[in-house]
Amino acid sequence: MDHTPSWLSEDQQDLWQALLTIVIALPMVLDRQLQENAGISNFEYSVLARLSMTEGTTMRLSDLAQICNSTQPRLSKVMDRFEARDWVARRTDSDDGRYTLASLTDAGMRKVVASAPQHVAQVKRLIIDPLSPTQRRQLGVALGRVAATVRQEFEGV
Question: What span, in angstroms and rounded, lies between the C-alpha atoms of 62 and 12?
Fold first, then answer.
């Protein structure tokens, strides 16, 4: 019986190492920029931005956790901090009392609007600008497929 591990090929290893750099270093770089310029983390910005892009700036917390690739306990801790800063308001979903809704307040929207320009510039500089339009489309398709697989694993499907 052969117990030799199945290693990645050189091309696969190059891809994997590049992806690790993005997965590990990119969030730290984005966190640093957002902490310096806005006093929030990349995850916190992501939560505020997702709410700001939602119709009525309101979403069920369970849906918000899913779209932000978060656990509900992690999101709940962020919501506690956001409520203390008057950036969000939580309430029971009147359509289904089992759910809690989070709504972005005017102060929360101001925080997103104030934080966005430097964050968007950083994202463009790091991710968008180094790629041609064709490369961006190809990367989007490829990452979409990988993200779907990872999301299923994350959600336990």
Answer: 35
What per-residue string of b and e applies to 116-142 under the rule 16 or more CB within 10 Å gives b? beebeebeeeeeeeeeeeeeeeeeeee
Question: Reduced to 3 states, what is the DSSP secondary structure of residue 103?
Answer: strand
CATH architecture type of domain 36-155: Orthogonal Bundle (1.10)
Model confidence over 78-109: pLDDT tens digits? 999 999 999 999 999 999 999 999 999 999 99
Give pTM, 2 decimals: 0.86
- Residue identified by tokens 């506690």 is 80
Residue ranges covered by each domain of the chain: 36-155
| Burial of 115 from C-beta contacts in 10 A (0-12 / 13-18 / 19+) | buried
Q: How far apart are CA 45 and CA 43, in angstroms?
A: 5
Residue with tokens 């939560």: 47
